[in-house]
Amino acid sequence: MKGARQEFFTVKAGYQIECPPQSDQDVLVLCSGWAFRYLQLADGSRQILRFLLPGDIISAPMIFSEDLNFSVRALTEVQISRFGGDDIRKKCLADERVMIELLRSLAESGRASYELAAALGQLPAERRIAHLFLGLIRRIAARSIMLHQRYPMPLRQRHVGDAVGLTPVHVSRVLALFRDRQVLTLVDGVLEVTALAELERLGSLR
Amino acid sequence: MKGARQEFFTVKAGYQIECPPQSDQDVLVLCSGWAFRYLQLADGSRQILRFLLPGDIISAPMIFSEDLNFSVRALTEVQISRFGGDDIRKKCLADERVMIELLRSLAESGRASYELAAALGQLPAERRIAHLFLGLIRRIAARSIMLHQRYPMPLRQRHVGDAVGLTPVHVSRVLALFRDRQVLTLVDGVLEVTALAELERLGSLR
DNA sequence: CGTCGGGTTGAAGATTGTCAATCGTAGTGG
DNA sequence: CCACTACGATTGACAATCTTCAACCCGACG
To answer: Is A118 within 8 Å of B204 when comparing Cβ atoms?
Structure first.
């Protein structure tokens, strides 16, 4: 990416990641920390659409289209790198591989949102939560070598609930079940998986 | 599109629309009839991801990516036009506008799947069904002039259920409610909207 | 020491699913 | 023309799932 205009900035945990007026077309990449895309509904509830991990493009589905139809919020403190939208678009046309990589990311994002819809529509609470964790630990494992099935997971139960369409109290009950059955524990920002096979059985769609 | 390799074929109502071996990269466009994209789950249930109307690209999210992660099935008898994948890709690079149009379609598809996730995760049955119909009548109205708020809607209640994550029985109850409250009726493949304002109030996310 | 956010738990209620019976309509074969 | 069947829609009774409301605990932090 050398030669491209690029800057960094930081957003504190819990704050929205704005896409300021003139820079709608810019591309933001998450460098450290966690964030999430979500849709805010009129009745006050929100649907978390995807958790963003370091390396993810924050507004992946919108690199070419103009209007952003979702919001993004920092889950932990995050560091973000901004690339000029025009630079990126020029690079795409110049370098085949940049374009391919962007499209791959776009396709992955599309697949994920379809899986999410299927999970929300068809699975009961337990399996929805298993599906969420399964997707997350796979993405985490793809980024760093894991030890003892312990994964960083800086989510409150409210975030889990907003992601799978359940109330925090019910999330608490399901997590208690998982604990009792020795499937996993989520404590203090760390997810420990004790029965991966069971988690996969619950969380897999096919 | 003149000069591109192109063929037509037909699929009967209820049959799957296959993407045969060698032509995974081809682009299929729906010319007449209705179809739907869906994900088949291991337990036998399925989530309908999007209904396809004439003019829609059948595998829109997958023009560039190789593996198709969803299935497509004909809802009515459909006519389909096939374009060679290589031809399309060449056109994209040659003609800026073709690329733009494809990306617009892709972005629209992404927005729709996010809205679907939000509806499935956050809305109760009544509002989920309202949301489905609202999205459909807007797309139908954009394609042809409508009279008296009557829209062709060749869905069985089972399709509605698979699209919004409810059992056909409960869909029947909700539709009965809508009938009683004079909001809409769905009879014999025709949706008649009698209280559009109410439908919008129920089915809008924001 | 008080407060506050997050998690846990119980009890009650709302929503949605399951099971089963019924009805109408269209098709099918005698 | 008449069973016979198959499918979709409807309805009732009941059960399972999930939400709501409330109380309580606990650690962090002023």
So the answer is: no
pLDDT digits over B82-109, tens only?
988 788 878 877 888 887 778 788 888 8
**pTM summary value:** 0.94
How far is the alpha carbon of B115 from chain A, nearest alpha carbon, in Å? 8
Cα gap A189→A201, rounded to integer Å: 24
State the pairing for strand pair A71-74/A35-40. antiparallel
CB distance B107–A46 less than 8 Å?
A: no
CA–CA gap between residue A205 and residue A28 (Å, rounded): 31
How many angstroms separate the CA atoms of B34 and B37, rounded?
A: 11
Distance CA B56, CA A79 (A): 39
Strand ranges in B21-153 using DSSP code E only, listed in sequence order: 27-32, 35-40, 46-52, 71-74, 78-83, 150-152
Return per-residue pLDDT of chain A as tens, 206 residues: 445 567 899 999 999 998 765 566 788 999 999 999 999 999 999 999 999 999 999 986 666 666 768 999 999 999 999 988 788 878 877 888 887 888 788 888 889 999 999 999 999 999 999 999 999 999 999 999 888 899 999 999 999 999 999 999 999 999 999 999 999 999 999 999 999 999 999 999 99
Secondary structure of B130-165 in the HEC alphabet? Answer: HHHHHHHHHHHHHHCCCCCCEEECCCCHHHHHHHHC
A124 touches chain B (CB under 8 A): no
- Tens of pLDDT along B6-25? 789 999 999 999 876 556 67
* Chain A residues with CB-CB distance to B134 below 8 A: none
Gap from B140 CA to C24 C1', Å: 30
Tokens matching residue A23: 């820079």
For an interface test with A, the pick among B114, B131, B204 (most A C-beta atoms closer than 10 Å) comes out as B114
- Taking contacts as CB-CB distances below 8 angstroms, the residues of chain B near A110 are 61, 109-110, 113
Query: How long is the CA A150 to C1' D2 vector, in angstroms?
Result: 71
Contact assessment for residue A54 and residue A143, using Cβ atoms and an 8 Å cutoff: yes
Cβ contact A168 with chain C strand, < 7 A: yes
Which conformational region is residue A27 in: left (phi greater than 0), alpha (psi within -120 to 50 degrees), or beta? Answer: beta
- Distance of C1' in D9 from CA in A22, Å: 54
